[in-house]
Amino acid sequence: MNLLRKPGAVVVAALALAVLPGAASAHDGDHPFENCTEAYAAGHANIPKGDEHYGSHLDRDGDGIACDRPPAGFRAHDDKAAADTGTKGTHLAETGGGGDTTVYVAAAGSAVLLTGGALVASARRRRATR
Length: 130
Prior knowledge:
Layout: H1 5-23, H2 36-41, E1 47-48, E2 65-66, H3 81-85, H4 92-95, H5 102-129
Antiparallel strand pairs: 1-2
Helix pairs in contact: 1-5
């Protein structure tokens, strides 16, 4: 068995996992949702024709209002229950934490993993040639 395959597979898997957070993104509003479930999860319902989130595939009855049957317990994206009570939640989305640095952190982690994998492979190669 080639000794470089196992560390190589670990490095590739680690790189893939490090890039995933940077690849995930919220709905940016530049296009319609894929389906109403996605729209409801993002806090959008009763989307009128002409809205950036509207899509004819979301308007099954053709009345010009997409996703007009929200599920029980639906909360619109502009509900500010935490603001009404004067308290701020502890969840990342409520605190406003996080930001655009996720991609850079993932890239730095990938670079560290790649460098470490190269060092391990180099050390094993030196040992094998002795």
